[in-house]
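Minutes, structural biology subgroup

Action item carried over from last meeting: produce the structure token record for Pyridoxal-phosphate dependent enzyme (Streptomyces chengmaiensis). EB confirmed the sequence was re-checked against the source entry. Recorded below for completeness.
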Amino acid sequence: MTLAPLLHRSDVTVANPDLLPLLGRTPVARIRTDLPHAHPGFWAKLEYLGAGGMKARAAVSMLTAARRRGELRPGAPVVESTSGTMGIGLAFAGQVLGHPVVLVGDTELEPAMRQLLRTYGARLELVDRPAAQGGWQAARIARLREVLARTEDAYWPDQYNNPDNPAGYRSMAAELIGQLDHLDVLVCSVGTGGHSAGLVGPLRRRWPRLKVIGVDSVGSAIFGQPARPRLMRGLGSSIHPGNVRHRVFDEVHWVGPAEAVDACRRLARGSFVSGGWSTGAVALVSAWAARAEPGTVVATVFPDGPHRYLGTVYDDDFCHAHGLKATAPATRPLEIPHPRAAEAVGWTRCRTVVDPVAPVPVPGGAPLAAHVPAPGGAV
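Output recorded by EB:
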């Protein structure tokens, strides 16, 4: 069977480099809202106030570098897998540099995000079922390869493994160094691994004793837990992205969707700045870090704003349907000695960070705890 081309020669995106000054240059805000208890406060970089959100930095970096190397021809289409946020960044980069953008998503992608991506000129291909191994991400990548095969001159940035993804966050590191007098603790959500890998090097050169906390989703395989169905999108992964630099993290926290929702809603009511799953997760952990070590300066990144999440995080019916408001929020994480010592089903902390593709024996051979299903269905 011959597949019809997804794009035609008439599909032309005119470059608009005048948009480039809108990239980044985002402020930091001091967050003091109870999360869920009082804390001394932490700094949050508000990436939703930059055009295209946080991942526009990586998108512009990846496409610019590919053009410089001759891998991406002028006007050629860009094809990428996304759960949403990178899609917005690539839509921005495509307009800046003059490339049509095809995004491979899945049916868990919120209707509002689908509309937004199409509004920005991106074309969507949606897969309707997760792969048996690797979940939605593996299914999207399989479809992506089909799209590449039928799209002339198409370029795949491969955000999961492309070193130009982390390179895009050097500008954010420079901004943070200019905005903060000192920094003791950096809290990073981890999905593709791009912004943590890009930030830590420059920030540790400025502040050598910097502690880095990774924040993952329950059900994510990134830090050695078993991959399970996940409700949260934008952090966590059921595959092992090459851009995750496990060695830069001092500890990792897994956060559940109910805890992220509670933090997001508290932020919105108390600080007038909020976001989605990743924002709630990092805010919860940042407040805990500021509380646990009084006198330390803690900073994090809020990757995007609340708007795409109005039908999920901020929707009472959605939250009740998924059991996200049934229990009181956790006030501190459970502690486990090793990622394979127990399976995280709620906010959990581990000070042993391992790369799961280079297995390390579990001390004492402790088995995983019995699995408790997480709410939701996305993988």
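Discussion: The radius of gyration is 20 Å.
Next step: EB to file the record with the rest of the batch.
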